[in-house]
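Two folds, back to back.
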Amino acid sequence: MSLGLKKYDGLCDEYMDKVTLYPNILWQFTLNKYIEAERKNRFIAAKLKKTATAYARNVFLQAITDNVSFSWPTKLKFDWYLPDRRIDPDNWTFTQKFIFDGMQKANIGKRVFLDNDNVKNIKGFDHDFYVDKVNPRLEIYEMEVVHEI
């Protein structure tokens, strides 16, 4: 299975860098699943966080290898194409914690995908949700920042 990097968006005629993760993997790290694990045992929840961060790290390591990068500081766009509507959007967006942690842990030599996920680099984010039963995915793009904090 591909980690999910594409440089061309077929919806338009320009190239853009984006990173794609897959909900069929991310669903096990949603908010309700994490709370359930935390209530059972904090070590189970810690393992869940470690696993989720490792998945995201691997995706962003592949991004570095494929020369996909974002120009920090930036605002991020999360387009969620989900297989159905059974899991609430707030449960899905919780996984961005692990995604940002994975971005920070992804480095090859001196090439780091994201050095820090503070407000200096992350100017904001926007989430949109769609249903795509055939090809569920999470696409992350950088958006233009129009003003500084």
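---
second:
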Amino acid sequence: MEEPRLGGRRRVLLVGLGTIARTHREALAADASIEIVGGVDPSPAQQDVVPLFRDLDQAFAAGVDPDLVVVATPTRTHLDIVSDVLDRCDALILSEKPLATSVSGIRQLERSHGRDRVASRVRVAHHFAFSPDVEWARAVVQQNPGWGKPSHILCVFNDAYSGLSEEQRASYVSSWVDSGPNQLSVAAAFATGWHVVAHSEEGDRAMTTLDHDGGVTVLASNWLAADTSKQTAIRFDHVGVEVRVDHTSMTALVLSSGRPVEHLGYTGSAGRKAAQYLGLYRALRDDPADHRLSVDLAASIAGLLEGAAHRSAEVLGSWASTAEVQTASALSRG
């Protein structure tokens, strides 16, 4: 089946008008060929999208004819909305990540609509994979095949989400479901062949160990943080090379035998998340077959999310918070 391309004037329908839709709109606004032809949300946080529809029935009854449908809704709704849109039109569909938290959900979508049709029409917003720092690090690694496969990947993602409302928590599900797909899409730029070795989580934070071809990947996510901080380190121990990526500042550093040899700075005007989505939409426009957007990658991520969920609750480390550490310190002094 021919891959759809977004050429010429492109009409976009936004489904979901919450927080993440703002970032989509910012990225879409950077392309003069994009026209947002409507927004769908029963209780929109953004009222300035015109026309505004309460549901897909109303939107398509009004004659909306999009080239691209962006699904920016809570995680649990992604598959059902994607399936609904596939029934209604031939538009390309960009779903927020994760497309699903189980492989069976994606396979059911493929059975209902045909695997080729789903592969051709559905893309997934693995936006972290398009961050300038990740793109740079990936290019550096590709330019140095002599480094071989990474021996160790460590992704640590912290978010100041302790004050999330119950509604926001329900939308994000957990630190693992929220951050895991981002971490895995970053790690996928450098390694393949994962399987889950151990996993432990308590909603606000998670730790996961996976074997990958040639080494080990460790993922740590935490909502109990004072501020956002996200980093990835990729080590090639047999050649003494380490690539350190700071996703928060969109910078990176290559160390060889402990000495810096390459350094990436960021001089763009877009903020972190906007820069990621700008890169994502460029790929969607220029190379919609990019694996980072694919349902295949979404299924791999869903399989790892599912595999981690099925692991026995193994303690990978002790959970603590600053308040707990301070209390313990005070007790020891007493």
